[in-house]
Design goal:
Length: 442
C-alpha cells in the first residue's frame, strides 16, 4: 500500500461529506414540497418522517424510470457511432492508453428526439419526472450507494485497485478503481465517463425540461426565468456532450478514482441538487398562480448577457487548452460539433516547456489567468441562482455557494498536484501568469 495523502479531511471528512451529501437533495426536495423552496422546519420528528414518506418513498414506477434511463444510456453508449480518442498513459498500468468512443453527442440528440416524440404522442409524458421527483431521487440515491459498495468490493476482489490508504472508509469515499470499464454488446465502456457526462447532465436536463413543461401545462406559458434557466442548462450540458473528446484527459478521468464521491454526485447529487432553481420557479408559480409577477426584465436581460459572455469564455478557454494539448500530442482532429465558438483554437500559441515533458499554455485566455474557466463557471452558477429573483429566498443561492467552495477546493488540490508534478517550472508558470481567477485582482 502506498502512503496516499488524504484529502477532504481524511476519514472523518469523508464520513461528514457522505452524510451531508445525502441530506442536501432530500432537504431541498422537502423544502420545495412543504415550503415552496423556503427553509423547511418540521415541527416534530414524526412530522419529518411523515413528510419524507409522502414525498420521497421509492416506488416501482420511480425505479423503472431511473433504471430505464440509465440502461438506455448504457445501450446508446454501446451501439451509437462515436469519435474515438485515446486517453493519457496510465502510469499504474504500464502506461497503457485506453480508447474512448465519444458518442455522448449522438446519445444526447437521440434521447431528446425520442423523448420529444414520446411526450407529444403521450406515450411517456416528461412531466412524470417532476411529479415523482422525490421518489426518483430516493431511487437514484439507493442505486448510487449500492453501486458504490459493489464497485469497491469488485475492484478489491479483482485486484484493480490503485493509490489505496489504510482507511477503508476513506478509500470507499475516494474510490479504489481508476478505470472502471465493462464490455457491453462488444463495446468497451468507461463507466466513470458515462456517469460523469451522460447520466448526471442528461438527467438534469430532463428534470429541468420536466419543470418547464409542468409550468406550461398549468399556465400555457413558460416564464422568462424558466426560459433563462433552460437556456443556461442547455448551453452547459450541450457543451459537455459536444466536447466529450476533451474529457478523457481531464483530472476526473486521469486522476480521480470511481468511488462513492463521484458515483453519488454523478448519479444523484448533480441532477437532483442542480435542478433546484427550475423547481423553485415552478413551485412558486403554482403557489402564487402568477408565473410572471415580480419578474425583472432588466435583470433577465443582464443575466442573459452575463451568461452568454461567461459561457463564451468557459467554452473557448477549455477548447483552447484541450486543443493545444491535443496538437502537442499529435492527436488533434477538428470536430464540427455545434456550436463552435470563435477563438477556440489557437494558431502557434505561446507555451512553457517544462522539465517533466508536459507543456503549459500561456496564450489565449490562459495568458490572463490560470483558471479562466473556473471564473466563468462561477459566474454562470451565480446567474442560475439569480434567475429565481421573483420570489426572494436563500436556498436558490446554495448552488453558487456550494459550487464556489467546491471549485476553490478543487483548485487547491490541483495546484498541489501541479506543484509536485512541475516543481520549479510551476513557479516559473505562476510568474508568467500571476493571477489565478481575475486578471489584475486575484
Ligand atoms: P482543469 O481544466 O483546470 O484541468 C486541470 C489540469 O490542466 C491541471 O492539473 C494540468 O494538468 C492542466 N493544466 C493546467 N494549466 C494548464 C495550462 N496553462 N496549459 C495546459 N494544461 C494546463 O480541470 P477541471 O477538471 O477541474 O475543470 C474542467 C471544467 O469542469 C471547469 O470548467 C470546471 O469549472 C468544470 N467543473 C464543473 C463541475 C460542476 O459540478 N459543475 C465540477 C468540476 C469541474 P497536467 O498539466 O498534468 O495535464
Amino acid at each position: 500500500m502506498s502512503k496516499e495523502q488524504k484529502e477532504f479531511g481524511g476519514t472523518i471528512g469523508a464520513i461528514g461529506l457522505m452524510i451531508f451529501s445525502h441530506f442536501v437533495p432530500f432537504y431541498f426536495t422537502l423544502s420545495l414540497r412543504y415550503n415552496s423552496g423556503g427553509p423547511y422546519f418540521p415541527l416534530s420528528f414524526n412530522e419529518f418522517i411523515e413528510n419524507f414518506k409522502e414525498t420521497c418513498s421509492p416506488t416501482w414506477s420511480a425505479f423503472y424510470l431511473y433504471t430505464g434511463f440509465c440502461l438506455l444510456q448504457l445501450i446508446f453508449a454501446a451501439i451509437l457511432p462515436g469519435f474515438k480518442v485515446k486517453g493519457l498513459p496510465v502510469p499504474t498500468e504500464n502506461n497503457r492508453q485506453y480508447t474512448y468512443n465519444c458518442n455522448a453527442l449522438a446519445s444526447w440528440y437521440l434521447t431528446l428526439i425520442l423523448l420529444t416524440i414520446f411526450h407529444i404522442t403521450g406515450i411517456f409524458r416528461l412531466t412524470i419526472l417532476v411529479d415523482q421527483f422525490g421518489s426518483v431521487l430516493c431511487v437514484a440515491v439507493i442505486c448510487s450507494d449500492i453501486l458504490s459498495v459493489f464497485i469497491y468490493f469488485y475492484a478489491i476482489q479483482t485486484n484493480q485497485t490503485c493509490r489505496m490508504t489504510h482507511s477503508p472508509i476513506y478509500d470507499f469515499f475516494m474510490g479504489v478503481w481508476l478505470n472502471p470499464r465493462v464490455k457491453i454488446l462488444g463495446q468497451d465502456i468507461d463507466l466513470k465517463m458515462l456517469a460523469e457526462v451522460r447520466l448526471s447532465w442528461l438527467l438534469l436536463f430532463l428534470l429541468i425540461v420536466s419543470a418547464a413543461l409542468k409550468q406550461y401545462e398549468a399556465f400555457h406559458i413558460v416564464s422568462w426565468p424558466m426560459i433563462f434557466i433552460l437556456t443556461a442548462q442547455l448551453l452547459y450540458i450541450n457543451a459537455c456532450m459536444k466536447g466529450e473528446e476533451c474529457i478523457p484527459t481531464t483530472w476526473d478521468i486521469f486522476y480521480e478514482k470511481w468511488g462513492w464521491m463521484l458515483i453519488y454526485w454523478n448519479l444523484a447529487g448533480v441532477p437532483f441538487v442542480y435542478a433546484f432553481q427550475a423547481n423553485y420557479i415552478l413551485v412558486n408559480s403554482l403557489r402564487t398562480q402568477k408565473p410572471t409577477e415580480g419578474t425583472s426584465m432588466i435583470l433577465i436581460i443582464v443575466l442573459f448577457i452575463v451568461l452568454f459572455f461567461a459561457y463564451y469564455i468557459w467554452d473557448s478557454s477549455q477548447a483552447q487548452k484541450n486543443r493545444f494539448r491535443m496538437k502537442q500530442r499529435g492527436t488533434y482532429v477538428p470536430r464540427n460539433t455545434f456550436p463552435q465558438v470563435p477563438w477556440n483554437t489557437l494558431k502557434d500559441p505561446k507555451y512553457l516547456k517544462t522539465n517533466c515533458g508536459s507543456t503549459l499554455l500561456i496564450d489565449g485566455w490562459w495568458k490572463y489567468c490560470r483558471k479562466p474557466h473556473y471564473t466563468a463557471d462561477i459566474c454562470m452558477a451565480t446567474c442560475w441562482a439569480l434567475s429565481c429573483h421573483q420570489w426572494p429566498g436563500v436556498l436558490p443561492y446554495f448552488y453558487p455557494i456550494f459550487f464556489f467552495g467546491m471549485i476553490i477546493h478543487r483548485y487547491t488540490r490541483d495546484v498541489s498536484r501541479c506543484k509536485t508534478k512541475y516543481g520549479k517550472d510551476w513557479t516559473i508558470y505562476c510568474e508568467k501568469v500571476p493571477y489565478a481567477f481575475i486578471p489584475g485582482l486575484i
